[in-house]
Write a structure and sequence with these properties.
CATH topology: Aminopeptidase
Oligomer: single chain
Number of domains: 1
Order of helices and strands: EEHHHEEEHEHEEH
CATH superfamily: Gcn5-related N-acetyltransferase (GNAT)
Shape: globular
Number of strands: 8
Helix content: 25-40%
Largest sheet: 8 strands, mixed
CATH class: Alpha Beta
Radius of gyration: 16 Å
Structural class: alpha+beta
Strand content: 25-35%
Distance between the termini: 30 Å
Number of helices: 6
CATH architecture: 3-Layer(aba) Sandwich
């Protein structure tokens, strides 16, 4: 099973003992309001289903979604993942509210982008945000992703929002930025 480590974080498969922390972290509206595919209210059944699905992905050799945990004590702080689309993937992530504004999202995303391009050989990684999610937009821009316009969402976001900022990073741009 794939495990990625950064200076402070470990990106690892979700486990059964992550269910309660998932419910606690995703029990805050300020977190879930920005997540297009997250049910609300988020229950233990939702968490158990998600954990089971992600564990199956990893066991089948298709790791795409990871828990973000502290490297030292392995406590869950968020989640991050790649949804494959041919030789592209969509990046998604979230952090529990106590962990906002400390650089953990960018640290985890940098590690996952390296995995996407260097490990999986993807051509492009893209992401979209709700129009009002300025924190996420700054994070994506800080990763070197460029805004390529707005994208229609497959299903409307909370509040009926049907499109939002779309960002992408091409493998060639990632390679150029990573070169010494």
């Amino acid at each position: 099973m794939a495990v990625l480590e950064t200076e402070r974080l470990r990106l690892r498969p979700f486990r059964a003992d992550d269910v309660a922390p998932l419910v606690a972290l995703l029990g805050e509206w300020q977190v879930v309001r920005w997540l297009s595919r997250m049910p609300w209210p988020y229950t233990a059944d939702h968490a158990a289903d998600w954990v089971g699905t992600v564990m199956e992905e990893h066991e089948a050799g298709r790791p795409g979604h990871f828990a973000i945990a502290w490297r030292g004590d392995d406590v869950l702080v968020g989640g991050i993942g790649l949804t494959p689309q041919g030789d592209d993937a969509e990046l998604g992530y979230w952090l529990g509210r106590p962990y906002w504004g400390q650089g953990y999202g960018a640290e985890a995303a940098r590690s996952l982008l390296a995995y996407a391009f260097d490990g999986l050989g993807l051509r492009r990684v893209h992401a979209y945000t709700a129009p009002g999610n300025e924190r996420s937009q700054r994070l994506l821009a800080g990763l070197g992703m460029r805004r390529v316009g707005d994208t229609p969402f497959p299903t409307p976001l909370r509040g009926g929002i049907t499109s939002g900022p779309h960002y992408e990073l091409l493998r060639s741009d990632y390679a150029a930025a990573a070169a010494p």
